[in-house]
């Protein structure tokens, strides 16, 4: 069973664009920064699903395939953590006051991830 990012996830994520604009309180540069972070969070979720697919593939494959999958899993895990670090550090160095808003945006995005995965499988 392959897990994939669905149109429903993207649609629900676009709702967070409105949330980003509201959290920026009229400052368009802050809104663009929060929307950029939202894009990073969507890429982060896509990376997570690729990682889950590799885990299931490594468990079902042969020894050679398993080692290749394990390397790919670690690469994807590093990419996932790097994406999160870039999002938080970018906002921190741009405007420290936006950091709690990014965390709130992350919570909303996690809720969207759970809803899209729960209703999909």
SSE blueprint and pairings:
Layout lengths: L6 H18 L3 H33 L2 H32 L4 H22 L1
Report on the architecture of this protein.
This protein is mostly helical. The chain is built from 4 helices and no strands. The chain has helices at about 5-25, 30-60, 65-95, 100-120. Helix 2 runs antiparallel to helix 3. The protein is elongated. The N and C termini lie close together (about 10 Å). The model has no long low-confidence stretch (mean pLDDT about 85).
Query: What does the oligomeric state look like here?
Result: single chain
- Residue runs with pLDDT of under 50 for 5 or more positions: none
Main sheet: strands, sense, barrel? none
- Please give the number of β-strands: 0
Globally, the shape reads elongated
DSSP helical segment count: 4
Q: Please give the share of residues in helix.
A: over 70%
Strand content: under 5%
How would you briefly describe this protein structure?
The protein is mainly α and 121 residues long. Helices cover 87% and strands 0% of the residues. The protein is built from four helices and no strands.
